[in-house]
Amino acid sequence: MAMDVRDSTGTAGQMPVVVARLRDRSPVSRLRTALRISALSLLVLVMLFAAGFGWFANKVAHLTTPANPAKADAIIVLTGGQSRLDAAMDLLASGKGERLLISGVHPSASRRQLQAATGGDKKLFSCCVDIDRAALDTIGNAEESAKWVESHAYGTVILVTNNYHMPRSLLEMGRLLHGAKLEPYPVVNSNLDNGGWLTKPRALRVLFTEYAKYLLALARGIVPMKPTPDGIALAETAAGG
User: Fold this and answer.
1) What is the pLDDT of residue 234?
2) 9 assigned to some structural domain
3) Which member of 11, 75, 88, 163 has the lowest number of beta carbons within 10 Å of its beta carbon?
4) Hey, what long-range contacts does 51-56 have (CB within 8 A, 24 or more apart)?
5) Of 160, 179, 178, nearest to 169 (Cα)?
6) Would you state the torsion angle of the CA atoms of residues 206, 211, 217, 220, taken in this order, to the nearest 10 degrees?
7) Is residue 66 a part of any domain in this protein?
8) Predicted pLDDT at 20
9) CATH code: domain of residue 227
10) Which range marks the domain in which residue 142 is found?
11) How much is the pTM?
């Protein structure tokens, strides 16, 4: 009997502890725990994002324009700047490719305006330059370029675009150009080597924006998302602006 009383008393003595633990799992406590976990997760994501941006910026900063690229079957240039077009036309004129596709031309830009804007040889432009006006963004560039490459059965293609735009362009193109090898030809307008992008607000802004788009492009390969136009119209360039 005495043993039963002691056991009963010991169990009763533990009840306040059990009640206290139950109180600790109140909604307020659970909310605090959830907030701590969310804050920690957010901090980890921010750190990963920052580390990824550093890698991306450093990668872009070390891209250089090839001095003498190997000859390819064709050349593709993505619109978005006069320097891209000039570089592509120079490659075509030097025989680095049989034909050139200018992808993402604004519908209002005529062929004559485009030729005048590039300053290229009229005969060369007439015989060996194709124009894509359907693409509105980098995804569209990849889709239209893939059609063009497949229709001509090209095996190697030089891709011309700015250095900061090259990683995403290669990513989108690589998803569709399965039978062709891409040779990147990054156009460098500003020297960003040795961390130069850190001291240039405009370059930093461009890199940050492009990095965010690059991450979205990566995510789109896992979870399909509706594309958002990010192409830059060529109307002002063709008009000489």
Assistant:
1) 36
2) yes
3) 11
4) 52/211, 52/215, 53/207, 53/208, 53/211, 56/167, 56/207, 56/210, 56/211, 56/214
5) 160
6) -120
7) no
8) 52
9) 3.40.50
10) 74-238
11) 0.76
Residues 10 and 123 in one domain: no
The token pair that represents 84 in the structure block: 């891209």
Residue 174 lies in a domain: yes
Residue 134, classed as helix, strand or coil, is coil
Per-residue pLDDT tens digits for 56-106: 988 888 889 999 999 999 999 999 888 999 999 999 999 999 999 999 999
Mean pLDDT for the chain overall: 81
Same domain, 55 and 81: no
Give the total number of structural domains in the chain: 2
- Written as six digits, the tokens of 186 are 């990054």
Select from 11, 26, 61 the last residue of a domain: 61
The per-residue DSSP string of 15-74 comes to HHHHHHHHHHTSHHHHHHHHHHHHHHHHHHHHHHHHHHHHHHHHHHHT----SSPPP-SE
